[in-house]
Amino acid sequence: IQMTQSPSSLSASVGDRVTITCRASLRINSHLNWYQQKPGKAPKVLIYAASTLQSGVPSRFSGSGSETDFILTISSLQPEDSAIYYCQQSYTIPHTFGQGTRLEIK
Amino acid sequence: VQVVESGGGLVQPGGSLRLSCAASGFIFSDYWMTWVRQAPGKGLEWVANIRDDGNEKYYLDSVKGRFTISRDDAERSLYLQMNSLRDEDTAVYYCARTPKGHCNGSTCWPNLKWFDLWGQGTLVTVSS
Known about the structure:
A: six-stranded mixed β-sheet, four-stranded antiparallel β-sheet, globular, B: seven-stranded mixed β-sheet
């Protein structure tokens, strides 16, 4: 299954509402997770099962969608949200990741 | 609660390396475990995973027959034996704890997996 994210990069201002889209090449139910990776650090899970917020993750992050189309939303962008965001499916082997979306703060 | 990888280094093409991942602070035997890699400047790539009891193992096609994932629950450790290494295997290798199954209200996804605890990674460089 191929995972395609859009956009590949974006720039937004503090306080903006930001959305990142992930499209699966086949239906994957809700087997979709979102990760955040900052430079030189390991990824960190934000959302799993398409819309469940990982414990400890700020509530400005949310996820939606099912089957082939998914969205990660940051409701009010903060400076510390500058990172690369990846979607990942766990419906079939291999558990593929999207190519990543680089989010920059203006 | 952490996982710590070790064993990376410089190896020639065709060589072998064994990565280790030491777990602490949680019941290791309750979890699937996964290896994920990231080539320099590139995205994340799932490599292999292993069931909590060690009886199921799955691999990325490009590493099948060359890499072997294993675990020792008594030692609370995960391993990745990498043989016949190629230039394209150069990457940071991460170990990740992998919960399985989730219910949200009346809806359950018993086979859903995600990676909720990552190590710092260990760099494997394959070069002559």
